[in-house]
Design goal:
Strand content: 15-25%
Mean pLDDT: 97
Strand order of the largest sheet: 4-15-14-13-12
Helix content: 40-55%
Radius of gyration: 20 Å
Oligomer: single chain
Low-confidence stretches: none
Number of helices: 15
Largest sheet: 5 strands, parallel
Length: 376
């Protein structure tokens, strides 16, 4: 993997870059649609590619390991071939999913024992076997196995957990070196900074992660319920320490406003289920604010879903029609809303890149934050 820094905003820490892997180029900042179980929910691959057009999407190790299982993915020739996606894929190591199982798992130095949410069967994730699973899945960028702490989190627990994540990282790196590639392209490991919302722990963790000299770095354990201001504070601390010549990935973030604020702090990569999850509940994100399409006020509004026309659904369908689909519990409504929201997120990341290169990112960001912070 190669990362080139193309441009830096003169008035913030925002940067525009380019990541190159064996599956192609990723222009940053980038938002990665979440394809948890080898599918971006409600969206066909042709729409994903032609309308939403991301350079990279995300898959999830925990879910893919349980279903369809790694042997099926290996038989298919890896996740790219299984889902017919010829661009980049990143896999999250499963640390976050295991964290969210709280009552169904036990964490110790060896790894995490957990009960499948599908059939209740018992499984063990260790730094070693998570590297093997990610070799089998075959994503271009893979994550180190970590523990994602909850919020709020006791300082002592956050500290112990962070040190364990660092020890697990060493085991991930050692084991990955012994585990051959399964397919005819390279994979890149990103370690993950932890430390909850404690500045001194985040600083320690970022310094440790930077010392590993990986080709890219991730920031985990945020967007788990803490106030946005705390998230920004932690991101700022970490980005000031992580090397400038490596991409920085903030995991699981967030709202359009969160994304712009974190780009301003020096983050390059984002993922979040919010655009599709909120779409399925009738919430649309636009450059002028959010729309709850289920509201009666849209019942006889025959204007396009979004005049900006980022994707074909924005001008093909009216707000009244989309509201009718939701009221009728018609599956098409959720699909249209998902395509719109993902298209908007990708537009936002690319527009941010454009303004970073043009040198007026901060002014544009402040205007956009103000506009998007409205309910229409």
């Amino acid at each position: 993997m190669k990362f080139e820094l193309k441009s830096q905003d003169p008035n913030s820490k925002a940067r525009a870059g380019k990541i190159t892997t064996d599956h192609g180029e990723i222009e940053t900042p980038i938002f990665m649609p979440v394809g948890t179980v080898a599918s971006v929910k409600g969206v066909h691959q042709s729409e994903l590619k032609d309308e939403i057009n991301p350079d990279i999407i995300l898959g999830n190790t925990y879910h893919l390991y349980l279903r369809p299982k790694t042997q099926i993915l290996e038989q298919a020739g890896g996740l790219h071939k299984f889902m017919n996606w010829d661009r980049n894929i990143l896999t999250d190591s499963g640390g976050y999913q295991v964290y969210s199982l709280s009552g169904r798992r036990k964490i110790n130095e060896e790894g995490v024992k957990f009960k499948s949410h599908i059939d209740g069967s018992m499984h063990l994730f260790t730094p070693e076997n998570v590297m093997e699973i990610q070799r089998s899945i075959g994503a271009d960028i893979i994550m180190a196995f970590d523990e994602c702490t909850p919020y709020p989190c006791d300082y002592g627990y956050a500290k112990r957990s962070m040190h364990m994540t660092h020890r697990w990282l060493k085991r991930c790196i050692d084991h990955l070196e012994k585990t051959p590639l399964k397919y005819d392209y390279n994979q890149t490991l990103f370690p993950i900074v932890q430390g909850s919302t404690y500045k001194d722990l985040r600083k320690q963790s970022a310094e440790f992660i930077a010392s590993v000299e990986a080709e890219g770095n991730a920031i985990g354990g945020l967007s788990v319920g803490e106030p946005a201001e705390e998230m920004y504070e932690m991101t700022d601390v970490v980005c000031s320490i992580l090397p400038e010549d490596k991409p920085r990935y903030l995991m699981g973030v967030g709202t359009p406003i969160n994304i712009l604020e974190n780009i301003a702090l020096g983050v390059d990569m984002f993922d979040c289920v919010m655009p599709t999850r909120n779409a399925r509940n009738g919430m649309l994100f636009t450059a002028h604010g959010t729309i709850n399409i289920k509201n009666k006020k849209w019942e006889n509004d025959f204007s396009p879903i979004d005049e900006m026309g980022i994707t074909y659904v924005d001008t093909m369908y009216s707000k009244a029609y989309l509201r009718h689909l939701f009221a009728s519990k018609e599956m098409l409504g959720k699909q249209i809303a998902s395509i719109h929201n993902l298209g908007f997120y990708l537009w936002l990341a690319r527009e941010a890149r454009k303004h970073i290169i043009e040198g007026d990112f901060l002014t544009w960001k402040n205007k956009m934050v103000n506009q998007m912070n409205k309910r229409l």
